[in-house]
C-alpha cells in the first residue's frame, strides 16, 4: 500500500501491511488515511492514549466494541473490529466521518488478531533471547528473581505484574525495544490450550517450569492434565532451545520426555548449607559463596533455584548472582513482611492447596517471634470438585498447628469447618461462629463481604497484642489485604 507510516518508520510498532498480514484483516476505510501509526496496544478503553491501537474483546458479560467511542475520544489511531460486528453496525459510516484519520481493521476474532500481531512484533527482534516461565505457582516470583539476576549483565524486559494471560502476554511484548537483550515472560493459564497459544506468540528460546501443582484443577480436572498443558511451553522447541525442569517434581520425567533441545534439571542439589532465616529469608551457599534470598519460605527458595539455574546458563558468576539476589524485594501480596508493633505476613495475592500448605507449614515452624501467631486464611478458588476436601485439609492442618488464633474467611472455609464436624459453641456478640477444639481458637466468617471483614477487624481489636505475628493467605478475589489496611489504619492491638 502507498499509505504513509509515521514520520519515522520505527515510531509505529508495526506497519499497516504487517498488521493486515498478521491479523488477516481487512481495512474498512473507504478512503485510506494518509498516515498509519500506533505506538501502544490496549484492550481496555480506559487505558487508551493518543496514538494507540484499541482491541475490543468479546467476553461472556461484556462486548469491547461498546467502548470504541471512548477509545476514539482518547486518541486511538487504529481500531480492530470483529467482521460480523462490522456487518451488523456500519462502523465506517458511524466513526470514519468523525475520525477520518483513524484506521478501522476488520478481523475474524479480535483476541487471535491481538495474539498474531504480537507474534509478528516479537519476530522483529531476532537477537532477543526470550525466556518463558510457567508452573502452577511461583511464576511471578521466579520472573522477578531472574530479572534481578540477569540485569546484572543484560538489558532485560519482562511483563509487569502478572500480565501472563491470553491477553496479558501479547500486550506485554509490545514493550520490547531494540536495545533489550533478554525478555522474561511468564505464562499463566486457566483453560486448556492457553499455554500453547502463548508459546506460539512468544516462541521462547528458554522454557522454565516452576512446578506442577493443583492451581486451576477445578477447570482442568487433574494434575496429569495440568502437567500436559504446562509442557506445551516447549511445544515449539528445536535442538537449540533449553528447558529448565524442577528435579524434585513428581512430573519431571514426563516433562522431559521426548523434548527437543537441552534439558536442565534444577533444585536443591545445586546449593549447600541451606538454612531458614525465618521472616528474613533463606541463607545458602552456591559455588562456595554464601548468599541470602531475602524472601521467606521454601516456595520462594525453590523459585530462586530456578532463577539461579537459568542465570548460570547465561554466564553469570556466583558473585553476580549474589549481588542480584540482594536486590530482590517482595511484590504486593507475595510474601510481604510488614513490620510494626504487629508483624503482618501479607501473602494473599493468590492461593492454591500447595502454596497454602507451604504458607501454613512455614508459619507453624516460624521461630524467633516474640508474640503469638495468628493465621487468617481465606478461600482458595477454581478447585472444582476438589474444593471441599482441599479446604478441609488446610483447616485440619492449621487447627492442629502451634498458632494461637485462626480466622477463616469465606464460604469454602466455613463448609470445611462444618465438614470436619468441629463443634460450635454458638455465636459471639459479633455474630461470628466460634469453633472450639483443642489447640487454636478458631473463628469462622461466612464470606468475604465487607460486613464480615468488618467483623474480623472488630475481633482483631480484641485479641491482638504488640509483638503478634499475623499471616494473611487467600485467593486474590478475597482481598484479605483489607485486614492489613485495618490493622495499619489505627491502633487495634492491646498493650
UniProtKB/TrEMBL annotation:
Record field: catalytic activity: D-alanyl-D-alanine + UDP-N-acetyl-alpha-D-muramoyl-L-alanyl-gamma-D-glutamyl-meso-2,6-diaminopimelate + ATP = UDP-N-acetyl-alpha-D-muramoyl-L-alanyl-gamma-D-glutamyl-meso-2,6-diaminopimeloyl-D-alanyl-D-alanine + ADP + phosphate + H(+)
Keyword set includes Hydrolase: no
Domain Mur ligase central: 133-311
GO cellular component: cytoplasm
Single GO BP term: cell wall organization
Top EC group: ligase
GO MF annotation: an example: UDP-N-acetylmuramoyl-tripeptide-D-alanyl-D-alanine ligase activity
EC code: 6.3.2.10
Mur ligase C-terminal domain mapped to chain residues: 333-476
Compartments in which it is found: Cytoplasm
UniProt: ATP binding residues: 135-141
Domain Mur ligase N-terminal catalytic: 39-86
Pathway, per record: Cell wall biogenesis; peptidoglycan biosynthesis
Keywords associated with the record: ATP-binding, Cell cycle, Cell division, Cell shape, Cell wall biogenesis/degradation, Cytoplasm, Ligase, Nucleotide-binding, Peptidoglycan synthesis
Entry keyword Iron: no
One Pfam family, short name: Mur_ligase_M
PANTHER family hit by this protein: UDP-N-ACETYLMURAMOYL-TRIPEPTIDE--D-ALANYL-D-ALANINE LIGASE
Function: Involved in cell wall formation. Catalyzes the final step in the synthesis of UDP-N-acetylmuramoyl-pentapeptide, the precursor of murein.
Family listed: Belongs to the MurCDEF family. MurF subfamily.
Name under which the protein is recorded: UDP-N-acetylmuramoyl-tripeptide--D-alanyl-D-alanine ligase
Originating organism: Candidatus Treponema excrementipullorum
Lineage: Bacteria, Pseudomonadati, Spirochaetota, Spirochaetia, Spirochaetales
Amino acid at each position: 500500500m502507498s499509505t504513509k507510516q509515521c514520520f519515522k518508520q520505527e515510531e509505529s510498532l508495526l506497519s499497516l501491511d504487517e498488521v493486515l498480514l498478521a491479523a488477516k484483516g481487512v481495512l474498512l476505510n473507504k478512503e485510506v488515511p494518509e498516515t498509519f501509526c500506533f505506538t501502544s496496544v490496549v484492550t481496555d478503553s480506559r487505558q487508551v492514549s493518543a496514538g494507540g491501537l484499541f482491541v475490543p474483546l468479546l467476553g461472556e458479560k461484556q462486548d469491547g466494541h461498546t467502548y470504541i467511542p471512548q477509545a476514539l475520544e482518547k486518541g486511538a489511531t487504529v481500531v480492530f473490529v470483529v467482521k460480523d460486528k462490522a456487518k451488523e453496525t456500519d462502523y465506517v459510516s458511524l466513526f470514519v466521518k468523525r475520525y477520518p484519520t483513524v484506521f478501522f481493521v476488520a478481523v475474524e476474532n479480535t483476541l487471535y488478531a491481538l495474539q498474531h500481531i504480537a507474534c509478528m512484533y516479537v519476530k522483529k527482534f531476532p537477537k532477543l533471547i526470550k525466556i518463558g516461565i510457567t508452573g502452577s505457582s511461583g511464576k511471578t516470583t521466579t520472573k522477578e528473581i531472574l530479572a534481578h539476576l540477569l540485569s546484572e549483565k543484560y538489558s532485560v524486559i519482562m511483563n509487569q505484574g502478572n500480565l501472563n494471560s491470553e491477553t496479558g502476554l501479547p500486550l506485554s511484548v509490545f514493550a520490547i525495544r531494540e536495545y533489550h537483550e533478554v525478555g522474561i515472560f511468564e505464562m499463566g493459564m486457566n483453560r486448556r490450550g492457553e499455554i500453547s497459544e502463548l508459546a506460539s506468540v512468544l516462541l521462547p528460546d528458554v522454557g522454565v517450569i516452576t512446578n506442577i501443582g493443583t492451581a486451576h484443577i477445578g477447570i482442568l480436572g487433574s494434575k496429569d492434565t495440568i502437567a500436559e498443558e504446562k509442557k506445551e511451553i516447549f511445544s515449539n522447541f528445536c535442538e537449540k532451545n533449553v528447558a529448565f525442569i524442577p528435579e524434585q517434581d513428581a512430573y519431571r520425567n514426563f516433562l522431559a520426555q521426548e523434548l527437543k533441545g537441552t534439558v536442565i534439571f534444577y533444585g536443591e542439589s545445586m546449593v549447600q548449607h541451606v538454612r531458614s532465616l525465618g521472616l528474613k529469608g533463606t541463607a545458602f551457599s552456591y559455588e562456595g559463596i554464601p548468599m541470602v534470598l531475602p524472601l521467606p519460605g521454601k516456595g520462594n527458595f525453590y523459585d530462586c533455584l530456578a532463577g539461579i539455574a537459568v542465570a548460570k546458563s547465561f554466564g553469570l558468576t556466583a558473585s553476580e548472582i549474589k549481588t542480584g539476589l540482594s536486590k530482590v524485594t517482595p511484590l504486593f501480596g507475595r510474601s510481604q513482611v510488614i513490620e510494626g508493633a504487629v508483624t503482618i505476613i501479607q501473602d494473599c495475592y493468590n492461593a492454591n492447596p500447595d502454596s497454602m500448605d507451604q504458607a501454613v507449614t512455614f508459619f507453624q515452624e516460624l521461630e524467633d517471634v516474640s508474640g503469638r501467631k495468628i493465621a487468617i486464611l481465606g478461600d482458595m478458588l477454581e478447585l472444582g470438585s476438589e474444593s471441599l476436601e482441599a479446604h478441609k485439609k488446610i483447616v485440619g492442618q492449621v487447627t492442629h498447628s502451634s498458632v494461637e488464633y485462626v480466622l477463616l474467611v469465606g464460604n469454602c472455609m466455613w463448609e470445611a469447618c462444618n465438614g470436619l464436624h468441629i463443634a460450635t459453641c454458638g455465636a459471639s456478640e459479633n455474630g461470628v461462629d466460634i469453633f472450639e477444639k483443642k489447640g487454636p481458637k478458631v473463628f469462622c466468617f461466612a464470606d468475604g463481604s465487607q460486613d464480615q471483614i468488618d467483623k474480623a477487624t472488630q475481633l482483631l481489636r480484641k485479641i491482638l497484642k504488640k509483638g503478634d505475628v499475623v499471616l494473611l493467605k487467600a485467593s486474590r478475589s478475597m482481598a484479605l489485604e483489607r485486614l492489613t489496611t485495618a490493622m495499619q489504619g489505627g491502633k487495634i492491638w492491646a498493650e
